[in-house]
Amino acid sequence: MNVKTSRNATVLRNLRIWDGTAWADADSICVQGPSITALEAPEEQPGKPTVIDCAGAVAIPGLMDAHVHMELNPEHSKPPAQTDLNQQPQMEKRAREMVEAGITTARDLGGGAWLELKLRNRIAEGAVPGPRLICAGQPITSPGGHCHFWGGEAADLAQARRVLERQVSQGVDLIKVMASGGRMTKGSDPSKPQFDVETLSGIVTSAQHHGLPVAAHCHGTRAIEYAARAGVSTIEHCSWVGQDGWASDYQEEIARIILERGVWVSPTINRGWQRMLDSKTGAVLARVRAAYGAMLEMGIPFVASTDAGIPGVFHHHLPEALGVFSRIAGLTNADTLRSATSGAARALGLSAITGRLAPGLAADILLLDGDPLEDMAALTRPVGIWANGRAVRLP
Ligand SMILES: [Zn+2]
Q1: Which of 41, 97, 107, 232 is paired with 198 by a 20 to 30 Å CA distance?
Q2: Chain segment 294-326, per-residue pLDDT in tens
Q3: 263 CA to centre of ligand 1 in angstroms
Q4: pTM of the full predicted structure?
């Protein structure tokens, strides 16, 4: 593993460049330190640039997963009773596998002991390889509510604010709130909201006071409505769970609030959803497709996410998940890739840092031996990877 950044420039030549929005009219990327300095090799370079011939590879921005849990072990079939405090090596292994798969940014949406923040800092220092992490710490949840074992229980707004302040004091990048129950926690009901709209609005206001966005876990329709009205930044899952189950309660008026408030939807479609595409019956799939299709048609922006860490969902599987996401949501390959690059950066407030191949942004670069706009499977064949200017894999 090479995690060095060189002071001299590196010029990657002989590329086809898709910059996160469209094909670029350039065939080289110049990298210096952690940043992209130019598309096209400048004629004069300070020092001797290292020139790498990339043999016609396709360059795209490093991929972004908007919903992961670094502390969760996907091989465990049940959630932990509490955070395992001795798992730094496994978390570092997950981070390494992610960046080796071309995932250069990930948003961690919950843990119990801020271990992922320590990992975030070690990656940023260059001490260990991994994606840039932005972290929420302990999610705010109701007493006994979804993922209460992480320690973020709050019965009212005053208690929610105390949980929030605790996260701020630990140095989080955003706030996560469990607006509805979840499937993983016994006794919590995915179809029911855990907080009313006033409490959610108060949480958003307090987070804004600290300059932090809010991500809201929402399965049930009422929770989706409350979170949208409260003005969260992203709605996680957005499952439209009603009395008749998953995706049974899509409501256009509520989708319109999501659109008007500029909220991003993070649908957490992982590789395992392939089984829905394979299933012969497909009633849930038809409902999911209808709901997502209506939201996309309306213009609601989607950000790619997997919920990595939950049972069976591995941290480095976003490249495979994107193919499943595009087929389930009915997105073009280009729109799917935008949702995991330039769009993801907008959703996460990182557009000034990453998400596109452009001068001034981080050198988060993925080289592929095929064109993912033609075939998403090309994402699973990285031939070169740079994360924040560090070469993870050289062509
Ligand atoms: Zn999650």
Answers
A1: 107
A2: 999 999 999 999 999 999 999 999 999 999 999
A3: 18
A4: 0.96
